[in-house]
Amino acid sequence: MTQAVVAAGSLAREARDEVVTMIERFMLASMEGDRETVRKYMAPNVDVTFTGGRKFPLPEQIQAFNARRYGWVKKAIERYDVAVGQDETVVYCTGTLYGEWLDGVPFEGNRYVDRFVIVDGKIVKMDVWNDSAELMLRQAGLADE
Fold first, then answer.
1. Does the N-terminal or the C-terminal CB of the chain have fewer CB atoms within 10 Å?
2. Residues in Cβ contact with 139 at an 8 Å cutoff, skipping those fewer than 6 apart
3. What is the pLDDT of residue 144?
4. Which pLDDT score is estimated for 84?
5. Domains by residue range for the chain, with CATH
């Protein structure tokens, strides 16, 4: 292996580690309700899309949406997958949600995928998918088992 290939691999690893650390901090701040820190990582014109195509460009809007769905919710992060490009880096964060529904019934194992697009150290796009709607339908007896 040539020295240039080893150096390129080291740079890619450093870039990956840097964005993973950033997303970890963002995720922790999100779960703690730390809007100031959340904003620090988001570009001013961030494009945030939640399940069902709902757009939430502000942290307050995300928290308000979650407050109408959950008593409380946290993420058990399982892994990060990173694709480093020339102009942007894409990070997938996957795991499960756990918490309580509004009626106080606990839940766990609710799969999620968060996709982040990072440009110049800021989140410019975030897509959120999870099984909450399906679980709510099941809980109401409206979904096939």
1. C
2. 101, 105
3. 75
4. 87
5. 3-139 (3.10.450.50)
